[in-house]
Amino acid sequence: MTAETKTFEAPVYSAQGKQGGSRPLPESMFDGIVNMPVMHQAVKAFLANRRQGTAKTKTRGEVTGGNQKPWKQKGTGRARQGSTRAPNWPGGGTVFGPQPRSYTQIIPKQVRALARKSAMNARAREGAVLLVDALNFSAPKTKAITSLLASLGVADKKVLLLTDGVKPNVYLSARNLGRAHVMPFSDASTYHILWSDVVVIESSALTQTSAEG
Length: 213
Prior knowledge:
The chain is an alpha/beta fold. It has two domains: 9-51 and 105-212, 3-Layer(aba) Sandwich (Ribosomal Protein L4, Chain: A), CATH 3.40.1370; 53-102, no CATH class. The chain has helices at 36-49, 109-125, 142-152, 168-174, 190-195, 203-212, and strands spanning 9-13, 19-24, 129-132, 159-163, 180-184, 198-202. Helix 4 links the parallel strand 4 and strand 5 (180-184). Helix 1 packs across helix 2 and helix 3 (142-152) crosses helix 4 (168-174).
């Protein structure tokens, strides 16, 4: 964990991608502290919670057949066998195979918040946090998003675009882009932030966050 406190600034762009100076990031979210163990715990839990846990193999009691001995106990010269459902037979049951289970990992809300904050600080330390003015798309249009990312100089990077609340038209505009992901600022997890190379945030989302803090 890095305990150094630092104030960060981020460049501000218009909705068309024109730079208009910079502004300090709120210290309530960006204090410069990066807690690596907590981020690891949050990402591990996020990936574990995505697992369905539906893998299953049949035991010898579930496979078909084997209701009687394949041959008599003695006199054949062969090893004694009681059922063709035994694991040593082709088509027999599986020993200690996977069974449906839950991989859910629950971590405290405060730990998740600290991990998310640490991930934001990690991107801010790299200068990978950009601010944009309000994005109000009248209709879904992929060209508008690609043009914006090109103007920001991040078209070739993995971009996490965090909006101020739910904006369906912005989300739909970027849905076909494999290297861009759009979601509300409040929904961004540690995994999503660390997945990205650059985090682009609507300025109003940070203003609301700092006011609530």
